[in-house]
Design a protein that fits this description.
With about 120 residues, the chain is an alpha+beta fold. Helices cover about 50% and strands about 15% of the residues.
């Protein structure tokens, strides 16, 4: 039996390097959870969630909402890219040069989109 010291890496176990950035999925759902869009880390749409209730609203509404959610999911994937770059040690001024949104700016955009939508339905 071989003794191992605490500071020696265990070569049999994979090294914990953080999240699996290559396979990250970014999802956005409407407030009612009747419609959702998923993007991969590159911002490409890879999935849709559409309930029967959402289909009943008609094609024009459905198209508008899918595009809205796809735009938000793409923006969310850009927030993920910012997090990935920061995790890998990229300097903040370099990250900022890519004009990537912050988590806070994404949340503000999402809130504005859904608040505006609620206001439209109430009028």
């Amino acid at each position: 039996m071989t003794d191992r010291y605490a500071d020696e890496p265990d070569l049999d176990e994979p090294e914990n390097t953080g999240p699996d950035w290559q396979n990250m999925v970014y999802e956005v759902f409407d407030p009612e959870h009747t419609l959702g869009v998923a993007c991969d880390r590159d911002g490409q749409v890879i999935g849709l969630h559409i309930t029967d209730e959402a289909r009943e609203n008609g094609d024009a509404w459905l198209c508008t909402e899918i595009v809205r959610l796809a735009r938000l999911a793409h923006l969310k994937s850009r927030v993920g890219l910012r997090a990935e770059m920061a995790h890998k040690g990229t300097r903040s001024f370099t990250i900022d040069s890519f004009d990537l949104p912050t988590e806070a700016s994404y949340r503000a955009t999402e809130a504005a989109e859904f608040t505006d939508r609620v206001r439209t339905f109430r009028n």
